[in-house]
Amino acid sequence: MHLKQSKVSIVKCREYHEFKKVKEAVRQVVDLIGGMESVISPGDHILIKPNLICAADYATGATTNPNVVFAIAELCREVGAKQVTIAEGSAIGHDTEKVFDALGFRKLAQKHNCNLLNFHKDEYAYVMNPLGRQIKRIRIPRAFIESNVVINVPVMKTHDALAVTLGLKNMKGIIHPSDKKRFHKWGLSQTVVDLGHLAMPELTIVDGTVALEGMGPVVGKPVGLGMLLASTDTIAVDRVSMDIMGFGLEEVEYIQLAGEQGLGCTQMDKIKVLGEELSNIKRPFQRLSLDEKLLEEMGIKVIACDACSGCNNVVNAYIHGLHVKGKLEKLKGCTLIYGQNPHMPDEDAQRIIRLGTCTRNVPMNEGVYVPGCPPHPMHISDFIDGKGLEKE
Ligand code: SF4
After folding, report:
1. I want to staple 265 with a disulfide (CB 3.0 to 4.6 A). Which of 27, 142, 236, 277 is the partner?
2. Domains, the chain, ranges and CATH?
């Protein structure tokens, strides 16, 4: 149980392309919860973890606004931080060095006298995780372990597997690339929570300057919200962000688990919201929904049997993605089965695709099995095309 009352501050930041304006907004949002000096001591080494998932500009809503990141760096210096490092390990398939260059972080880091660190090139150390339920031991970058203060700067986004990605999920960027792949195999919601026991930042500032709705975390629609949120309780700031985005706690399993397992506060009535009035700034985010008529016309059957949000989101995102790319034909006549109580499809079902670990032991000899809990959206095509990544 989380006993301390959590504070979450919210400020508007409409002129988010202008560094000076952004810096003032960052100062305000942090001052509302006690100021930078309440988390940083003179001489500290600070690690700032943005979300640089790929080389998409922040105007797309996919990555953290560099104005926010470097405004934070300057505020850290003002209270006496000795060293400020901006660190990231981009998503699998993306070269972090190229992402730093493409998004201007290399030049900006020089200008603001910050270090730039690619986690994937850092030394990792194995760390035990006694409170973890799935992960008992995992590699964590040395720079992360050795920093005095970690400031987490996620973007407010929807997510194809987890409904939303905010502060807690952003910490997954620190882990070793091979562990990133394993998180889906081990169960994404619980593993993200397990990582939280080891890698909880001291301060989370949610970048809602340009957020992302629809098919997040990369190719959705940008939303120019012009907003920043901050808290020393990552789960509380995630919960308040979800409320702004129109997501209930029951829709985001990993935040629910994080609250139950003591990582932070998820009860809205126990969170003190400072700054902007929540009721004035709520802005429901678009979710993905399937075009049932189109699926029927193409003979695509989707059988979800007690599926949790992970599989529901992944399957919706996968089908929607094919549709947007004009490749839905690929699933013509397919029956997709997933969920915690999968049952046999009709006898005449063709081209059966079993999605997720829950369907592993279903006695359907025909068809393709795609492992993962939930399966990684990027991997579904590989399996269906006969290029399975790993055998279970
Ligand atoms: S594989 Fe099963 S438990 Fe995992 S997300 Fe899918 S339905 Fe849920």
Report:
1. 236
2. 6-281 (3.40.50.11440), 292-384 (3.40.50.12280)
